[in-house]
Specification:
InterPro entries: AASS, NAD(P)-bd_dom_sf, Sacchrp_dh-like_C, Sacchrp_dh_NADP-bd
Distance between the termini: 41 Å
Organism: Paramecium tetraurelia
CATH topology of the largest domain: Rossmann fold
GO cellular component, one term: cytoplasm
GO molecular function, one term: saccharopine dehydrogenase activity
Number of domains: 2
Keywords: NADP, Oxidoreductase
Strand order of the largest sheet: 3-2-1-4-5-6
Oligomer: single chain
C-alpha cells in the first residue's frame, strides 16, 4: 500500500498538511523539507506558533485551522496529498474520518482508536492508509522490537522473553520537580496516563495492574 501511494505521487511536488504546531512540529518540518519535492502546510489553532516553526523556511506556510470546523478541515485536507496530525487524541478521529472521506492518507503518533479501525474497508477501497502509533511509545519501541527480533532470528536464535521499557526519567541534577519527570510531550496526557490500567504478557500469562 505504501509503495502504491509513493508511485501515485512520484515526480510531482507533494503538499504535506501538518496539523499541529507543538514541540514536535519543527523537527517534522525539517525532516520533510530534506526532500525538495515536499511543500509543508502547517495548520494550527495556534497560528502564531505555526508561524514560529515555519519562520525562515522555504517551501513552507503557516495557517489557522480549527479542526472542529469540519468544512474548513475538509478544505485543507482536500488541498493536500497527505496529512500528518500531531495534536491531542480527542481530535484524531474527526480528522481520520475526513481523510477517509476525501481519500487522503494520514500519519499520527496517536493510538489506533476503534473508530479509526472502523475506517479500514473505506481506506482499502480508496487506496490510502492510516498510519497510527508512529511516535516514541508506541512507535519507535515497535521498530526497535522488530529490529531485535530480526537480528535474533538472523542468527538462528529463539526469543524466550522480551521486555521493553520507555520513559523520560531525567538525570539526577535535572530532577527538580515533584513528579521526578521531564515533560517532552503533552503534560495533560502524561498525567492522565497515570489513570490507565496496565496489561502485559509474562511467560504466556496476561498480567493486569490496576491504575492508582
Amino acid at each position: 500500500m505504501l509503495s502504491l501511494y509513493r508511485n501515485q505521487l512520484a515526480g510531482q511536488q507533494k503538499k504535506v498538511l501538518l496539523i499541529g504546531s507543538g514541540l514536535m512540529a519543527e523537527a517534522v518540518i525539517d525532516q520533510l523539507l530534506k526532500r525538495n519535492d515536499n511543500f509543508v502546510v502547517v495548520a494550527s489553532a495556534h497560528v502564531e506558533d505555526a508561524k514560529k516553526v515555519t519562520q525562515n523556511k522555504e517551501r513552507c506556510s503557516a495557517h489557522h485551522l480549527d479542526v472542529t470546523e469540519t468544512d474548513e478541515l475538509r478544505r485543507f485536507v482536500k488541498n493536500s496529498d497527505i496529512v500528518i496530525a500531531y495534536i491531542p487524541p480527542q481530535f484524531i478521529v474527526p480528522i481520520a474520518k475526513v481523510c477517509a472521506e476525501i481519500g487522503r492518507s494520514m500519519i499520527t503518533s496517536q493510538y489506533t482508536f476503534p473508530e479509526i479501525r472502523a475506517l479500514e474497508e473505506e481506506c482499502k477501497k480508496k487506496g490510502i492508509i492510516m498510519l497510527n502509533e508512529i511516535g516514541l511509545d508506541p512507535g519507535i519501541d515497535h521498530l526497535a522490537t522488530v529490529k531485535v527480533r530480526d537480528e535474533v532470528y538472523a542468527k538462528g536464535g529463539k526469543i524466550i522473553e522480551y521486555e521493553s521499557w520507555c520513559g523520560g526519567v531525567p538525570s539526577p541534577e535535572f530532577c527538580d520537580n515533584p513528579f521526578g519527570y521531564k515533560f517532552s510531550w503533552s503534560p495533560f496526557a502524561a498525567i492522565r496516563n497515570i489513570n490507565n490500567d496496565a496489561k502485559y504478557l509474562e511467560k504466556g500469562v496476561q498480567k493486569y495492574i490496576p491504575a492508582f
